[in-house]
Amino acid sequence: MKTNLLHIKNMVCPRCVEAVQNLLVKAGYEPMAVTLGQARLAPSSPVDPRAVAPLLREAGFDVLLDRAEQLTEQIKGVLQEYLEHLRTAPAPLTTSAFLADRFATTYSHLSKVFSRTANLTIEKYLIRMKIERVKELLSYGEMTLVQIADQLRYSSGQHLSNQFRQVTGRSVSEFRRLMQPDRLSLDSLG
């Protein structure tokens, strides 16, 4: 089955978009638009997703054949946007409202699909994303924990500190002391 639209897992940043674009061109395809989680090929360049899967897998990506997997990857991409929304919106939407609005479906449906496919709830995935962002901001040394908590909409620095310990198994102070951040890539969060 040939298609002009590939759904691709583990694309989490602009460098991933560029890497997929380059891989497809190198393999002789004509990508028209490559975005996080998708590659749209020219009508003259359809591809069998199973044929291109090994090429993408070598670079750490994977072709999604199942609709639930595709939706899960789209949710992960929108959650990246949600983190920015938290930072910039004067009165940010809740996660459920943001996702339901973005996908024009119920949060309940999105949550069920995500949990079944990712073996992790949306909330837990978002917490992991936030903690990775906290690690990044801490490693820069430019903000206090309270400022970071405020930026990510935690109720307090203590709440962030407690969640940080739950997720990483160490305190923020221990993390700062080590200053060799054990950050994870976003595609390995779940």
Automatic annotation (TrEMBL):
GO molecular function: DNA-binding transcription factor activity; metal ion binding; sequence-specific DNA binding
Keywords: DNA-binding, Transcription, Transcription regulation
InterPro entries assigned: AraC_XylS_family_regulators (IPR050204), HMA_dom_sf (IPR036163), Homeodomain-like_sf (IPR009057), HTH_AraC (IPR018060)
Domain HTH araC/xylS-type residues, every copy: 73-178
Keyword Ribonucleoprotein: no
Cell inner membrane recorded as keyword: no
Identification of the protein by name: Helix-turn-helix domain-containing protein
Species annotation: Hymenobacter ginkgonis
Lineage summary: Bacteria, Pseudomonadati, Bacteroidota, Cytophagia, Cytophagales
